[in-house]
Amino acid sequence: AVVSTQSTGKHQTNQIEMSSSNPVDKVHQYAEKAKGGGWSAAKDLLRYLRHSRQRFPELVLKYGVPLVENYSSKLGNEFWEYFEMVLIAAFDCGDDELSEKYLEKIRKQFPGSLRVKKLEGMHLESQGKFSEAAQQYTAILKESPTDAFCMKRQISIFKAKGEFQTAVDLFNTYLQIFMADVEAWGELANLHLSMGNYKQAAVCYEELILSAPQNYLYYSKYAEIVYTIGGIDNFRLARKYFSHSLSLNDKTNTRSLMGLAACSYAIASHSHKESRNKDEGKDISGELFGFVQTRLEDIYSNAEGTEKTIFLGVLYKMSEIFFYVEK
Predict the structure, then answer these.
(1) For a disulfide at 64, which of 30, 86, 204, 281, Cβ 3.0-4.6 Å?
(2) 98 or 8, which is more confident?
(3) pLDDT per residue over 91-103, tens digit each?
(4) Is the dihedral of CA 204, 206, 210, 216 positive or negative?
(5) In 10 A of CB 238, how many CB atoms?
(6) pTM here?
């Protein structure tokens, strides 16, 4: 009977893995399975969350606490991994009582461990003690200067405190060591954008494009940034990157289509003022705008209500510039 139950559990797990490509859907399926009880189903849920790097702290506490408190012998060498997951979930949920209880237990098991010191820093963060947490991470970095986790936590703390320039400086130090961290480049770009540092954000997206040259979203985002910086040269550059983004994805890339429309309008407006560039405004931008307008009208043809009216009205208003250029 035991063998039969284990086989059934494995079969259900395989069904979940094959049922959906959406990680969140899989989490809910594992959670539904765990409702039926049994330590194995709870373990499968926590294992999937760990491997997929998703954080559902309420689920982890609901199924993880009984798992680590009642089935430690069945978890074997993996016990402390699941125990740490539950502890971090307690931080996320603000459960100070459980946090203190589990943190004390893990301190006794691993005295003087750098990993435990990091958990102590996270506990301080969960209590809103950001300055103390930053000091904790600084102390760890003195022992281990290239600890990526502590460097990122310090960045997060200064972002939370609104000290954005300090966070940028720490990001720059971090990326000198971990240049291939794509996620960090994206976060730094967003931080620069929030500060209005568009040129620095553009540099970040140049790095992202180099890291993933087939990602059409990076090209469209870079194009948006250089378009925002402004100037005829940047409008032309943005037009190139929006076009390349469309060459990588012309099915669901409405953002780049609208970007091309905006670039064509901006270049035509400039050309109307500068007679020496009049031919470009008429021959290139006008033709391109017509192509984009047709594509966008097709996409929005099934839209309803004011959204369609407003959007098509904006496109029509923008198209008027090309009549002036031709004249």
Answers:
(1) 86
(2) 98
(3) 999 999 999 999 9
(4) positive
(5) 26
(6) 0.80
Give dist(CA 178, CA 184) in Å, integer: 9
Chain centre to alpha carbon of residue 141: 26
Longest Cα separation, the chain: 87
Q: What is the pLDDT of residues 13-30, one digit of tens each?
A: 555 555 556 888 899 999
Six token digits for residue 174: 């971090």
Rounded CA separation 283/281 (Å): 6
Closest CA to 174 of 81, 139, 166, 231: 166
- Which residues contact residue 211 at a Cβ distance below 8 angstroms, ignoring those fewer than 6 apart? 180, 182, 185
- Residue 58 burial (C-beta neighbours within 10 Å; 0-12, 13-18, 19+): exposed
Question: Tokens 């237990």, residue?
Answer: 105
Q: How high is the pLDDT of residue 323? A: 57
- Compute CA distances 239 → 95, 246, 251, whole Å: 51, 11, 18
HSE-CB of 2 using CA atoms within 13 angstroms: 0
CA 95 to chain centre: 27
